Amino acid sequence: VDRAFPRSPRGALKIARTLVALTALICFIASGAHEAYTALAGMETVITVLFLLLYLLRLDARMRCLFWPLADIFNSVVAALFLLVVALFAIIVKTNKGTLAGGVLGLILFVLCLIDAVLLWKKISLGRARGRSAPAK
């Protein structure tokens, strides 16, 4: 178990994304919102928890079949796009206060996804040497 990961900026961001997505999910369920809102918040919660566990248990170092930071960036960008659309629809439609609260939390989650993607991109692009000067493995 990587005890330093939850205290790192990326770890804190993953935990924040999980909590905000779970709160949005609860808001959408409690308000009886459209199933698409609930499904997106639920999928985001589950996927973020899985990535959190992947990094927390250091499974990314053991399972080298996939470049996990790039998969995480892809997840963050796709989730951000879906969250933007669904959160704006939830805010515009605002059938009740629960749907409105879920939409606002969806916009906060959208921002957190973008920040996560930027942090991961900086880690990938600035953390390693490229080109001919890169050491041979």
Automatic annotation (TrEMBL):
Source domain of life: Eukaryota
Record key words, sorted: Membrane, Transmembrane, Transmembrane helix
Cellular component per GO, a single term: membrane
Membrane-protein topology: Multi-pass membrane protein
Annotated protein name in UniProt: CKLF factor
Cellular compartments annotated: Membrane
Origin species: Leiothrix lutea (Red-billed leiothrix)
Transmembrane stretches, start-end: 12-31, 37-57, 69-93, 99-121
Annotated ranges, domain MARVEL: 5-125
